[in-house]
Structure formats: C-alpha cells, structure tokens
Amino acid sequence: MSTLKVPVSPRDHRRGGPNAAVTLVEYGDYQCPYCAAAHPVVRFLESRFGPALSVVFRHFPLVEVHPLAAPAAEAAEYAGDHGRFWEMHDAIFSNNNRLSTQLLFALAGTLQLSQMGLRDSIARSLHADRIREDFIGGIRSGVNGTPTFFVNGVRHQGGFSAPELAASIQDEMGALAPAR
Amino acid sequence: MATILASGTKAPAFTLRVTPDQTLSLSEFAGRRLILAFYPADWSPVCGDQMTLYNHVLTEFRKKGADLVGISVDGPWCHQAFARDRNLHFPLLADFHPKGEVSRAYGAYRDDVGESARALFIIDQHGMIAWSHLSPVAVNPGADGILDALDQMPNLEQNHVDAQSSRQPA
Predict the structure, then answer these.
(1) Residue B165 scores a pLDDT above 60
(2) In this protein, which residues make up the domain named Thioredoxin (chain B) (predicted)?
(3) Across the interface, do A64 and B142 touch by the CB < 8 Å criterion?
C-alpha cells in the first residue's frame, strides 16, 4: 500500500487545525477536470467532519498536457504569499471550466491582490521550485495521476465521490478511537 | 499473467521502429541505463496516463543516469500522433511487426488480448536487467518503484568523477 513519503509540515498549505484527528492530503492539478470535480466533494467533507478534519493541498501539475496548470499553481502560491492561498485555490477550481490566464488575473483582482505582482510571479516562475518539490514528493509517494488522496498518510483507494472519501476518513477515525 | 524476465538476466536485444522512418536498438544505449516501459496501448485518459506521468519525471531519471523508452504494440504512426498530443520528450517504440515479438522476449506479452503487459525493466550499462516489475494492467505503477530501484544502483556519475580524479591527483 502506498504511503505518503513527505510528511505534512508547516511548509504545506493546510486548511483546518493541526490537531485534527484526520489529515486529508490531496495531490492535484488546477487544469485537471477530475480534480475540479473532486473539489466540491472535499469542501463537503470539510463541512461534514468540521474540526476533526484538516486538508492539505500539494501541486501535481502535468504541465506538458495542461499548459495552464503551471500558471494556475503560480497564482495560488502568489496568493499564498499574501495569505490568500485557499481563496485562490477555491476560485480556480470553481472556475475550472473557463480557466485561462485572463481568469487568473481577474481572480487576483477580485481578491484585491496586485495583478502586476501576479504577472511577475507567472513570468518568472517564482514558485517553480516549490511546485516541483510538491510534484517530486508526490512521485516518490507513488502518485500516478490526479487527484490522489492520502488519509493520515495512507493512500485512499477507490473513487473520489463523497461516500467513498468519507468512508476512508471514517475508517481512519474508527481506527483511532480505541487508542483514546 | 505473463512471467517477466527477472533481474540478473541479459536483456534481449531489439531493433524497433521509433518513427515511421527511423529505428532504435537496445545496443545504442550501451554504457547508459535504460528504463524500458512496456504498456498496453496509447491513448489512456490524460490525468492517469503512465507515459504522460513519466514524461514529467524525465529530469529525475536522467539525473540518475537513465534514459526512458516506452514500448507497446501500437504502430509508429499511432505513436507519433500520441507523442505529439501528449508532448512526450522520449521515444515510443512500436512492437508492431512481427507483432509483440520484443514484448514476448521480455515475458511481457498478453496473448489473450494481443497487447503488451504493464511491465517495467531497468537495464544497466552492461545490458543486464537490474530490476523488473509487473503491474496489473489496470494499474499505472507510477514512478516511485523506478526511482527507488535507481537509487539502489551504484552512482554512475560518481564512478566517472572518481576515475578522473585518480588519473589526475591533486
């Protein structure tokens, strides 16, 4: 069974408390339609499990087939530099069907981030190292496509529907309960 | 399920078409490490496709002294269209005629469906199989097994540097 080779750390983008019983790590690509489809499912799981669940997103852009995946990841990281990672992340996935560089600039504007700053970030690939680090960490953990989820470090097998992912999370919570 | 050639076996030689008018032979990789990735067919869905994934890991493979080729029974024209569509930066070999001959030689042919199995081989600089792995057909094996296996092999660059420095003591 594949396990997460790079543990969750403060360098990660994490939504939810670090003391949550379960951490869901997603490797995703902003231009991947399956990731976009899984996004509302993840949002649903966050509201269903509340403080018991925290969510981490790591970049796994397949840039040779998804030319907008890299600029989108740059936009998310650029927003992250200004404390707005998750807002940009949600906005990109919510608009996945009309993803374009213009859209990224529009989203930056909506989040009241400097569009000049975003242009600089994309043009100079300022976050390329971090994005590649995420990608290689995913590769070493056996990620073979997107989205791939890990529940407390163990790879989620099966589909990305709410019942399937919720069952993985529930199982993990059940396994933790007797130890408390 | 096929039984693939194990590590320690001499890698069977091959010459296959790589484009409609060019061939590629195993002997051309002598002195290098070669990752041979047999796969069932071109045109798997993008987000989970094995060749698309490996295309993004080429830098890591090369850092470890390894080249990569993909092999399936698809013809060279099909490979060409697939490679263009996915922006692949490594060769795809056509085990097309006689169909599956090289796949068979590596124990990586599925007679029931007439396609290559999903089998991985690392061939060392001396032409010996250093590592091999067979995946279920439906499972993209990812690249972690290949990278872990390459990590276990002696460092080619280091040997080279040592050989040079011993010739030219400081």
Answers:
(1) no
(2) 5-155
(3) no
